[in-house]
Amino acid sequence: MNRRRGSGFTLIELVVTLAILALLAGMAAPLAETLVRRDKERELKRALYEMRDAIDRYKLYADAGYIDKPAGSSGYPPNLTVLVEGVRDKRSARGEAFYFLRRIPRDPFAAELDVQRHWGLRASTSSVEDPREGDDVFDVYSLARGVGLNGIAYREW
Q: Name one GO biological process term (predicted).
């Protein structure tokens, strides 16, 4: 009587395989979380750069006389919305305008849906240590709490 041994895995083989898979998944989860966070930080840097570049171009155009600059004004935009809605080109007879942003970027760490509330605004008359809003927008910063992978708080980027 020759019995054929059934093909398949034993219970011990299955348990060992599942243990190895669980160990690998446990090691991969923190790595995946770090990668997602790094992508969000990269998006935050890009958004800050985009807005700061638009603010600087607005100031450059105001100082060059391409757009209206009220007397006594610093030349910086009065708010972020102006950068999206555009500003009339003084040199154009047809009423053309300069647009500095297509839209106000979203802070990837902000839970708030309103993009106007994602960003802190710093006026040209306030200090870096104590940023305050004012008559113009000199700089923007994230209102997100937390510290980046580089050890610097998101508010200080």
A: protein secretion by the type II secretion system
Summarize pLDDT for 38-88 with one digit per residue, the tens. Answer: 999 999 999 999 999 999 999 999 999 999 888 888 999 999 999 999 999
Residue pair 110/117 in contact by the 8 Å Cβ criterion: yes
Query: Cβ of 133: how many Cβ atoms within 10 Å?
Result: 12
Q: Which residues contact 10 (CB under 8 A, 6 or more apart)?
A: none
| pTM higher than 0.90 | no
**Which alpha helices (H) appear in the chain, and where do they start and end?**
11-64, 81-85
Q: Which one, of 86, 81, 80, 82, lies nearest residue 99 by Cα?
A: 86
Torsions phi, psi of 30, nearest 5? -65, -35
Contact between residue 99 and residue 84 where contact means Cβ atoms under 8 Å apart? yes
**Distance, CA of 89 to CA of 95 (rounded, Å):** 7
